[in-house]
Amino acid sequence: MDTPANALPSTMRSWIVGKNGPPADALQLVPDVPVPTPQGANALIKVAYVSLNPADLQFMKKIPTLLPFRRRPVPGLDFCGEIVALGPSATATAATHKFEVGSVVCGAIPAGSVAVGVGTLAEYITVPVEILSLKPDDLSDAASSGLGIAGQTAALVMSEANVQPGQRVLINGASGGVGTFLCQIVTARGGVVTAVCSGSNAGLVRKLGAVEQVVDYILNSPVYYHLETEYSDNPFDVIIDCVGNQFLYDMCEPYLKPTGIFLNIVGGATEGVVPWVKGTLWPKFLGGTPRRYKILALMPSGNLQREVVQWVNDGLVQDVPIDSQFAMEDAIKAYEKLETKRAKGKIIVKVAS
Ligand SMILES: NC(=O)c1ccc[n+]([C@@H]2O[C@H](COP(=O)([O-])OP(=O)(O)OC[C@H]3O[C@@H](n4cnc5c(N)ncnc54)[C@H](OP(=O)(O)O)[C@@H]3O)[C@@H](O)[C@H]2O)c1
């Protein structure tokens, strides 16, 4: 049964992007935004936690706030919270996925919501029921909020990488939100991981599964030179770049098998066209790298979210490392931490008081 309308507040706290810029200039906490009503096949969620993603910062800085369909955009993509009401045509889809009013769910908003600025950093949000998953049984609500963009990106990468048991996989940026998922799921699928991170994060990534070797990119700079020296006798089957190091691809011929693939998750529209042109169009006879290359762009979906939750329920992913947790009113500090690019796993904002 739906929560009685009179049990819900009429207004809520929500962060908005007042103008484009870095977090301290862009973000405002508004105390009296009307609580939305779920229409159609949407659910109203009382948000417990939001995890932050680098894309939030890109949208905050780059998508104009003056667009008529994007007034007072709300930042944030991921969430975990409780369904408090269902729209008039949401019940059947909710039942299909075994959730109802009172279920604790997690997800990441679809691209359409990003476009119109309907983000998650608010006390209540409405989202299509289809994008939701029940949160994993044995994961905290805070950690479950971290399964969205980072987890779904790992699922997208895995579908492209098609890692076979015994294959050797290099993960660059292994200690970040996406990298920490990849370390676990690649090893769970039988892959042998070499993780690239700074020395201070070696312990973290080693705990995330059967990571065979850790390369400290600070100690071994430039890292492509180190990889050529150490791995040309035993090159990788798959390289996954979660940092966007163009040289890592340009120089990979010695350390990526001729049959291997280089997957880059940094270098889409937000990074300009150079990596894409160099990786996919630059002919080999003009010095292009003779290795397969793909830039991946996530379109968040319920199917990917439920796949990631299943990984957790099946024990393939056992940990969602939390770098730090901030109170709702400290979201600017949380985004400033994210901006340092030093997060060890996920940065979380606790929304519900
Ligand atoms: N294509 C898509 O659809 C998609 C989806 C999700 C994310 N992304 C992008 O993928 C990237 C990673 O996302 P994320 O959520 O994992 O970011 P994140 O959590 O902010 O990544 C932070 C991590 O990156 C590591 N790092 C920073 N510079 C490094 C370097 N030069 N070499 C190795 N590691 C380095 C840091 O480790 P140290 O402190 O040890 O340096 C830190 O642990 C971002 O650029 C994001 O925008 C793209």
TrEMBL record:
GO terms for molecular function: oxidoreductase activity. SUPFAM superfamilies: GroES-like, NAD(P)-binding Rossmann-fold domains. It holds the Pfam family ADH_zinc_N_2. Residues 24-349 form the Enoyl reductase (ER) domain. InterPro entries: ADH-like_N, ER, GroES-like_sf, NAD(P)-bd_dom_sf, YIM1/Zinc_Alcohol_DH_Fams. PANTHER family: ALCOHOL DEHYDROGENASE RELATED, ZINC-BINDING OXIDOREDUCTASE. This is Zinc alcohol dehydrogenase. It comes from Pseudallescheria apiosperma (Scedosporium apiospermum). The lineage of its organism: Eukaryota, Fungi, Dikarya, Ascomycota, Pezizomycotina.
